[in-house]
Design brief:
TetR/AcrR family transcriptional regulator; about 80% helix; elongated; mainly alpha; Tetracycline Repressor, domain 2; Homeodomain-like_sf
Length: about 180
């Protein structure tokens, strides 16, 4: 029950952060969002830092699960078109519904992690099925320096998601095609 309550509170904190920003993330706001009695969040996460750590840990868990699911849906990547389609699917997921809310929270946490080493350690890019799929795709095409190219490609895609999150709209397919073409050169 404690683990479930911690997850429920971390999910509520994620929602508060997505809706109200970092300044709105308080123990009381999380209690309200989780429909829990006042003081519940602070009983589980005594400090704001503990609450942020729980939120970021949950966010990374959800992101890893999303990347695993996306990679499984697309495996194996046989063509550049399939990779473009996969990236487009991922960007749509990150810009709509719960994915949009997680993206808003992720970027707020990323900025916060500049001043918080513990958060930065949790947010550091991880090995995952999506990254593995891109590395395998690039390796199969004889691309050199796969690690750096994969990182650059994913960083650029993340930048496109951030731009569309701030400015609205979808990530342009042509932009994704251009990034993938550059990674293959």
């Amino acid at each position: 029950m404690v683990s479930n309550r911690r997850t429920l509170l971390a999910d509520a904190a994620l929602d508060v952060l997505a809706d109200e920003g970092i300044r709105g993330l308080t123990h009381r706001a999380v209690d309200r969002r989780a429909a829990m009695p006042p003081g519940t969040t602070s009983a589980y996460f005594r400090t704001r830092a503990a609450l942020l750590t729980a939120l970021v840990t949950r966010l990374v868990h959800l992101d890893q699960a999303e990347l695993q699911t996306t990679a499984e849906e697309l495996a194996p990547l046989r063509s550049t078109e399939e990779l473009v389609n996969g990236v487009m699917l991922l960007t749509r997921r990150r810009l709509t519904g719960e994915g949009r809310r997680r993206s808003l929270a992720r970027y707020a946490c990323a900025v916060e992690s500049v001043r918080d080493r513990e958060l930065r350690e949790i947010l550091v890019p991880r090995e995952n099925a999506g990254l593995d799929a891109i590395r395998l795709f690039l390796a199969a095409r004889g691309v050199k320096d796969i690690k750096d190219r994969s990182h650059t490609l994913l960083t650029c895609i993340d930048g496109l998601v951030f731009d569309r999150l701030v400015n609205g709209g979808e990530v342009p397919r042509e932009a994704v095609e251009g990034l993938i073409a550059a990674a293959l050169r």
